[in-house]
């Protein structure tokens, strides 16, 4: 498990972004509307939404009253890349047992000293998710497609947190910069600069939770300065880095 998040939003709209981890989302009140792999999805009833890593998605309130959510971020030790395709095809899981186990995990995490119970709850969530999803032995929906779009994503990932210019990418990949942008956006539903910025926000978030002050987290994650981090962090997550760090330190 990477991180746990509780939040309530009434107006914040998540832009297209990606995460390095699996997102396990339950909505306690209201509803969320989002796009994943160019398909509009939602959180009807008592579902559990499972958003796979490295697949761009956005999100916004589906009602005027907003929504209240609880999220668990899982690393690849719980679900590996074989399950990404199945999650892209059907991210909103109607499974009362799975939802009950997610609720139980959040309850265990709320009480310091119950770490063993939380680990047990997490293990059962992973087991249930693997039973629901059918792993794909071949290339999944989350892997880079063949061609220049996949090559560009590999290059962007390899250079993180530093940036690569489009001119340099064009020379390395033997393609015109505008073709790179069009191909990447068409393949992933997100522009190259949005992809890089969301990966940097993800990195900054982990650094903040690890105790790094915002100014140091900003430079370590590839932002120009703390102001640059603040602007993009709040745009993606709806909260400032400082407030996010204080909430994480408070458990």
UniProtKB/TrEMBL annotation:
Stored Pfam families: AraC_binding (PF02311), HTH_18 (PF12833)
SMART domains recorded: HTH_ARAC (SM00342)
Region feature Disordered, mapped onto this chain: 42-62
The protein's name: AraC family transcriptional regulator
UniProt KW Transcription regulation keyword: yes
InterPro entries noted in UniProt: AraC-bd (IPR003313), AraC_XylS_family_regulators (IPR050204), Homeodomain-like_sf (IPR009057), HTH-like (IPR037923), HTH_AraC (IPR018060)
Domain HTH araC/xylS-type: 150-247
Species this protein is from: Kitasatospora terrestris
Entry keyword Cell wall biogenesis/degradation: no
Coiled coil location: none
Swiss-Prot/TrEMBL keywords: DNA-binding, Transcription, Transcription regulation
Highest taxon of source: Bacteria
UniProt lineage: Bacteria, Bacillati, Actinomycetota, Actinomycetes, Kitasatosporales
